[in-house]
Amino acid sequence: MFRSSLVRSIVRPVSSRRLIHVSAVRRSAEPIPTPEGSGAGAEVAPKVSAIVDQVAQLTLLETSQLVDALKTKFNITEAVHVAASSGAPAAAAAAPAEEKPIEKTEFKVKLEKIDAAQKAKVIREIKNLVPDMNLVAAKKFVESVPKVVKDSVPKDEAEKIKKALEALGATVILE
Question: Does the pLDDT value for residue 25 go beyond 70?
Fold first, then answer.
């Protein structure tokens, strides 16, 4: 299967009529190194070992034809192959997600209501917190609560903003 994906990456269409082979086929006597943990040291039946040796001697084009012939013989489609090979890791990854809920990392800081006596202080604080907001815009913002002060802020920054506004007499909610 590895070689068939390699064939697709090596043979590139130059125009709609012809293909160019980018790399020469490797036909040396040295074996291709296998990745660690791939089961290379496991005992293999002699019949399987002989087939593997024969497949290793094929060119990339012949390997591609072999893969296509096996897919046809065993009625294997590409979608089934992808689902079968990546299905087990996806199921294993889904299991830990069910056990532990994902912790929220970004919050909305929402100003719910303000104390009328502390309105001026809250306006100044909003002006300082929101970039490109002048005093008039900050006053209109505070008078039209509930409103979102900042969106998509990290948890520590959201808590800092909440603490600062609550110290001034405002009611703040983190969503």
Answer: no
